[in-house]
């Protein structure tokens, strides 16, 4: 039987970045993934500047997989278009298959053992043992620490009896050509849009060099409304209706519930750490991996260290307040969709605040900083309304 200090299940950004961080310290890591890499992952492919910076600080080659850097926003409120220019990089457009493959390669370069196309058969928490099959051959692996980085695969959360979710946001994407209308803007502008009659649903378009990704995001669990809004969004932008949107759930954390017990930790979506306001999750996947890596290293140096307690505590300290405010903004968007969208796009200060959230200059809960930042920037932006 093989033995590893750490076994990580799931090679999305959370799992592979954690594997990389631990690999850098010479810790023995096995990274297990059910799909064949590079694999398709349903995602809009927007890497916020704050997430890009984390990866860039480790590996400058990340710039080679960036399709586009977006500084400008085209906001559509019902039928009114508002063009904004942040004059700084906001979002880096990438394909998730490429980003995730890039991160896995970084881990493998640090001697992480990576096995894709495997099936987890059992997790035996009493014996610290995992059984998985690889090309029909059964393998048994012993671990000191198991990390769940399996994204929104709730079945594995049940396996380890850690289900820290309060709710699920619904996100849906469509990938295809820009179409005649958006082509005029696709070089520079990302779109954010609401349509009258669809409370609490935000539409968006993220441009890549060849294709675009359009999407809808809502924390309200209503696929019927999403389907209707898709039709209107596609009509508005004259997108190809033969290409069908795909749907996926994003788990949202309940901070009263633990994301670690004994020698098992959850990171990224498996821990419900995505942003409840925007659905952005890559940043939280990377950040939770950094925290997990630090805590695991402390534990491996001193086996008396209370790993699960400290990990839970540090994650809560880092994200609890931010996610609370994220839920509050989401609540406002659900109940005052038109007004809050107007504030974030057409109102100068609101737009500055939203941009600073995306870049990471300001966190949701830094209210004083929000006020100061807005006042400082108030004389320095260019908003054109059509
Ligand atoms: C439609 C949509 C659009 C989104 N757009 C954005 C965006 O533009 N920007 C952004 O920041 N976030 C976005 N998100 C959120 C983002 O995709 C997630 O938050 C992020 O992928 C979380 O990373 P992760 O590593 O925790 O999980 P994942 O990226 O989901 O990775 C989990 C991995 O675990 C593997 N796995 C699952 N089960 C098993 C198993 N049994 N055995 C082995 N492996 C397993 C999966 O195959 C996968 O590779 C979007 C989400 C959706 C649904």
Helices and strands, with pairings:
Elements (H helix, E strand, L loop, with lengths): L1 E8 L3 H12 L4 E4 L13 E3 H8 L11 E3 L1 E6 L2 E6 L5 E3 L2 H14 L3 E3 L2 E7 L4 E6 L2 E12 L5 H6 L5 E12 L2 H4 L6 E6 L6 E7 L4 E7 L4 H15 L8 E8 L6 E2 L2 E3 L15 H20 L5 H29 L1 H9 L2 H12 L7 H11 L4 E4 L1
Parallel strand pairs: 1-2, 1-11, 2-8, 5-13, 11-18
Antiparallel strand pairs: 3-7, 4-7, 5-6, 6-19, 9-10, 10-11, 12-15, 12-16, 13-14, 14-15, 17-18
Bound molecules: flavin-adenine dinucleotide (FAD).
CATH class of the largest domain: Alpha Beta
Q: Give the cofactors and ligands.
A: flavin-adenine dinucleotide
Gross geometry: globular
Strand content: 25-35%
Q: Return residue spans where pLDDT drops below 50 for at least 5 consecutive residues.
A: none
**What order do the SSEs take from the amino end to the carboxyl end, as H and E?**
EHEEHEEEEHEEEEHEHEEEHEEEHHHHHE
Query: How far is the N terminus from the C terminus?
Result: 66 Å
Helix content: 25-40%
Tell me the major beta sheet: 8 strands, mixed
What is the count of distinct domains?
2
- Rg for CA atoms: 21 Å
CATH architecture group name of the largest domain: 3-Layer(bba) Sandwich
Provide the structure class.
Answer: alpha+beta
User: How many individual β-strands?
Assistant: 19
Number of helices: 11
Mean pLDDT: 93
Query: What is the fold named in CATH at topology level of the largest domain?
Result: FAD/NAD(P)-binding domain
The CATH homologous superfamily name of the largest domain equals FAD/NAD(P)-binding domain
């Amino acid at each position: 039987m093989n033995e590893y200090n750490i076994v990580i299940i799931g090679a999305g950004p959370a799992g592979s970045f954690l594997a990389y961080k631990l690999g850098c310290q010479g810790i023995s890591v096995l990274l297990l993934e059910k799909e064949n890499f590079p694999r398709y992952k349903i995602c809009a492919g927007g890497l916020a500047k704050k997430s890009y910076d984390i990866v860039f600080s480790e590996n400058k080659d990340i710039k080679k997989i960036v399709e586009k850097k977006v500084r400008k926003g085209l906001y559509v409120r019902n039928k009114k278009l508002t063009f904004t220019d942040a004059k700084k990089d906001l979002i880096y457009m990438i394909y998730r298959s490429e980003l995730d493959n890039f991160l896995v390669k970084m881990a493998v370069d640090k001697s992480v053992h990576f096995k894709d196309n495997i099936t987890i058969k059992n997790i035996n928490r009493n014996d610290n043992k995992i059984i998985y099959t690889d090309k029909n051959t059964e393998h048994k692996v012993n671990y000191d620490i198991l990390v769940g980085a399996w994204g929104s695969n709730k079945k594995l959360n049940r396996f380890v009896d850690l289900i820290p979710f309060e709710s699920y946001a619904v996100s849906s994407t469509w990938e295809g050509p820009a179409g005649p209308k958006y082509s005029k803007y696709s070089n520079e502008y990302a779109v954010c849009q609401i349509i009258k009659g669809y409370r609490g649903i935000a539409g968006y378009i993220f441009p890549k060099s060849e294709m675009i990704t359009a999407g809808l995001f809502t924390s309200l669990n209503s696929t019927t409304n999403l389907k209707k809004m898709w039709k209107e969004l596609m009509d508005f932008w004259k997108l190809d209706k033969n290409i069908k949107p795909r749907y996926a759930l994003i788990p949202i954390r309940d901070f009263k519930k633990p994301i670690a017990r004994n020698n098992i930790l959850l990171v990224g979506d498996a821990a419900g750490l995505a942003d409840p306001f925007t659905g952005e999750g890559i940043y939280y996947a990377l950040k939770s991996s950094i925290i997990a890596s630090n805590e695991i290293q402390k534990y491996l140096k001193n086996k008396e260290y209370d790993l699960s307690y400290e990990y839970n505590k540090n994650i809560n300290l880092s994200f609890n307040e931010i996610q609370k405010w994220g839920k509050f903004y989401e609540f406002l968007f659900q109940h005052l969709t038109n007004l809050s969208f107007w504030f974030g796009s057409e109102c100068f200060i609101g737009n500055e605040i939203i941009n600073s959230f995306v870049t990471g200059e300001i966190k949701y809960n830094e209210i004083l900083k929000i006020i100061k930042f807005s006042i400082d920037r108030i004389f320095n932006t260019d908003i054109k309304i059509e």
